[in-house]
Amino acid sequence: MDDSLLEKKEGVVDNDNENTTWVEYWLEGELVHRSAHVTLKKPTTYLAAEAASIT
Amino acid sequence: MCTSFMGELMTATHNFGASPIRAATTADTFKAALYLTSATVNASTTAYSSTNEVTGTGYTAGGVTVTNATAPIAANSSATAGVAYWTPSASITYTTVTLSTAFDCVLIYNSTQSNKAVSVHTFGSQTITAGTFTLTMPSNTTSTALLRLSTT
Question: What is the pLDDT tens value at each position of chain A, 55 positions in all?
Fold first, then answer.
């Protein structure tokens, strides 16, 4: 296949939750490839309550 | 709460009640499954289910195995505060897949222990066409690790 026939589209989403990049290749109006790369930013956190003091 | 205790929770040292029988002292196997935007996967999820999991070329139900080469760490920051944390040691990658229906979350679960749920992580909805979907993990630090048990 002649790669010059492919149209490349790229995008970025960046917010508090993630940084995502994606790339698409289109051939004659048809999506033939799409990949995405998500970097997670927010950890899952459990805040433990302090145990009652022993007096 | 002792920071060491939080770390030991992550390695199944303590047992206040009935516990599963552990077949080995090695780390369990954790997997990562992707779910459609229509799925309800959240803090109330108790175990992996194939309901509303993505389907498509190159994707196997249940997802992929999470690389776990780094044990949990417990770090004390003061007399009253600390964090226990863990992050997969490599990106979670679904290679050469076609996932045509939009998905927006991943469930990490313990396939060694009856597929019990660990955590759910959401992101903007995605589709993949003959491509690769990669979830890159945050840095494994006290403040950014993927899973944190914290008294701070």
Answer: 778 889 999 999 999 899 999 999 999 999 999 999 999 987 777 766 555 555 4
pTM for the structure as a whole: 0.91
HSE value, Cβ hemisphere, 13 Å, CA-based, for B75: 14
- Identity at B65, one-letter amino acid code: T
Q: What is the pLDDT of residues B104-115, one digit of tens each?
A: 999 999 999 999
The one-letter amino acid code at A14 reads D
B144 token code pair: 């950014």
Strands B64-65 and A18-27: unpaired
Q: Which residues contact B37 (CB under 8 A, 6 or more apart)?
A: B102, B103, B104, B125
Tell me which residue in A31, A36, A50 faces B126 most closely, judged by beta carbons: A36
Contact at CB, A46 and B149, closer than 8 angstroms: yes
